[in-house]
Amino acid sequence: MKKNIKEKCGLFGIYNVDGAAELMYYGLHALQHRGQEGCGMVTTDGRKMHIIKGEGLIVENFDEKKIHSLTGRSGIGHVMAGKDDGAEVSEIQPFIFKHQFSDFAIAHNGSVVNFSEIREKLERSGHLFHSYADAELFAQLIIENLHGDFTAALVTALRQMEGGFSFLVMTPDKIYAVRDKHGLRPLSLGRINGGYVLASETCAFDIIGASFERDLIPGEILILSADGCQSLKYSNFSHRYLCAMEFAYFARPDSNLEELNVHTFRRASGKALAVEHPAPGDIVVGVPDSSISAAMGYAEATGLPYEIGLIKNRYIARTFIQPSRKIREKTVKLKLSSIASVVRGKRVVLVDDSIVRGTTCRRIVALLKEAGAVEVHVRIATPQITHPCFYGVDFTTYEEIIGAFNSKEQIRQAIGADSLEYLSLERFYQACGRSELCTACFTGKYPTNIYQALKEANKIRK
User: Fold this and answer.
1) What is the domain range of residue 73?
2) Is 441 an active-site residue?
């Protein structure tokens, strides 16, 4: 059986800092957009580990009393995104493993594509699993190779895994931070009060007043210990295939990914979209929140006024990460409302970051027309998504992707727009000013072996 955790998560780690649990709470809060189904924190005082985790949001699981119970100067934390049927306690991270050589805690972001092959091999050798999480797979691989030297066991385990992932592993006196050799998943290092912090996005550093040091290099292991910060490479293969959707959708606009500010990129992509695909509009409207920057860029390039034509209900989770279609359909209706006085009688250029299933875009076009917009011209600030993701994003089969089997004109008709255009791949690369990205969801060119027949990919997860 395949695992079915299907979306990017968020990681935060802190080493040798007073008030570690409180700082970790705020850091994870800044990463809450990366997952709302479950969360957890584990700390160590150098001898014993203390853990609290549960379903839902950070604010729903932690109060002052619980935070104070997480003693110690080091810790790792995790926010988890949805599955088809919601979060299960067995899947919520971090996990703690007790071993004769060393207890350790572990949390991950991303996906190991040869998960099934490794798990089957480990089960044949006697390992028992309690979840379908990549973090447990990595932990069992470490245990399989642990004969006294923890670092050596970790390196041996990493060399057996393929995919896009980042991991935090904590022993009583060390934190190991890992980034996959393809650079698909982000992970950054910062400094605060003489200690270290680690996070999936740099916005988590800003909220606690930490300073950014650098991004982890693809294929790198950072070891934080009493000796300072040591760097190892578990693979000499190293590329910067950072996920394109990190820039376009997932990351917060105030985060920097490999030295590029997310808002700056999105604004540039909006400008490029305007040059490539101008529209006969009166106003430009962005879909909150991830498309606002692109919409501003589009408006700036065309000279059309940017208007707030859609309002987001801040108490509704992001639809892209909702765990089932039924819930997603209901959430789209709850999360956004249109401002009739702004759009009535206008030709609206609607800028969005992507179209995956078409659910959200179809409903937004209908909202604007119900509010009196005479035309809605949809402009997408990424290329057309045509292929599933194998690295942790929540479109894992062709059947979920409207662009997999439908032409641009068919998609336009399905969403009810008056016109539809996508940013070209060439312009997308130009907007981010780099030559390497993972654009497999646009092109079908995957940076790794996917270990399964492409057309049947991931169907067992459903």
Assistant:
1) 8-239
2) no
